[in-house]
Amino acid sequence: MATFDYVPLQATARRLIVKFGQTGTVTRLVNTGTSYDPTQTPTTFSCQLVVLDYEDSKVDGTMIKRSDKMIYVSTAGLTSGLEQSDKITVGVEEYSIERLKPLNPAGTLLYWEVQGRR
Length: 118
Description:
Elements: H1 7-20, E1 22-33, E2 38-53, E3 69-74, E4 87-90, E5 93-103, E6 111-117
Antiparallel strand pairs: 1-2, 1-4, 2-3, 3-6, 4-5, 5-6
């Protein structure tokens, strides 16, 4: 049985997000120091992303709110994966991550799908 090679799809996803998207920033709080008295330092790194509105049929007011955005984050240039506690900044808008889902068929991470909330 032949296996499918997802690497070309990863390159296509990266290329399309760069072409039609924009640059954003991911901010992560990193703990340093002792475990009983850690110092939280915000660490930022840039990423390429596309911000979209949810379809009206998906907005239920509870799980997905009208102001939520669907954000596709490219894997290009990311040195580590995204985490639920990260914040994503696009222009002047900062979004917390409500839901984080990697599109990861057969172990090849194509992109991250994020439900962002202001």
